[in-house]
Amino acid sequence: MTARNDRAAASGATPEPEGHGVPTPRAMLVPVTVLGIQALALVGSAVSFIITAITAGPLAASLIGLAVMFLIFAAGVGAAARGAWRLHRWARPAAIAFELLVIVFAFSVIGGSLWLGLACLVTAIAVLLGFFLPAVVDAYNRALTD
């Protein structure tokens, strides 16, 4: 471990990510973990669309299209989670933009499926708040200047 990593471990941060010398704060676990869960949920939804498409008849093509779209979103969300953990400058705005879409989705489904809408709303707010925690903002600011 380097001296910088020793300081990071003593201050409650993880060792420095690749690409710059700024340690990732532990507070980053909140948005990264929730983004990972959202990516897994998107993959699960895509799998369910594919399974449903097997017996869907004329709707099979639409379900396969949705599955592909959800897999693309899952890849993007997963990449944003990984990039956020490494404090890459593109990852934070990408994740925030996705969470704004999730909030719009949550409000659109909350009337039909209360639990799905609330789950989407709570996870999106958790990610947004996590990205604006002082330790996370400070780490990103230091990473941008390095």
Automatic annotation (TrEMBL):
<keyword id="KW-0472">Membrane</keyword>
<feature type="region of interest" description="Disordered">
    <location>
        <begin position="1"/>
        <end position="24"/>
    </location>
</feature>
<keyword id="KW-1133">Transmembrane helix</keyword>
<feature type="transmembrane region" description="Helical">
    <location>
        <begin position="60"/>
        <end position="81"/>
    </location>
</feature>
<keyword id="KW-0812">Transmembrane</keyword>
<feature type="transmembrane region" description="Helical">
    <location>
        <begin position="93"/>
        <end position="110"/>
    </location>
</feature>
<feature type="transmembrane region" description="Helical">
    <location>
        <begin position="29"/>
        <end position="54"/>
    </location>
</feature>
<protein>
    <submittedName>
        <fullName>Uncharacterized protein</fullName>
    </submittedName>
</protein>
<feature type="transmembrane region" description="Helical">
    <location>
        <begin position="116"/>
        <end position="137"/>
    </location>
</feature>
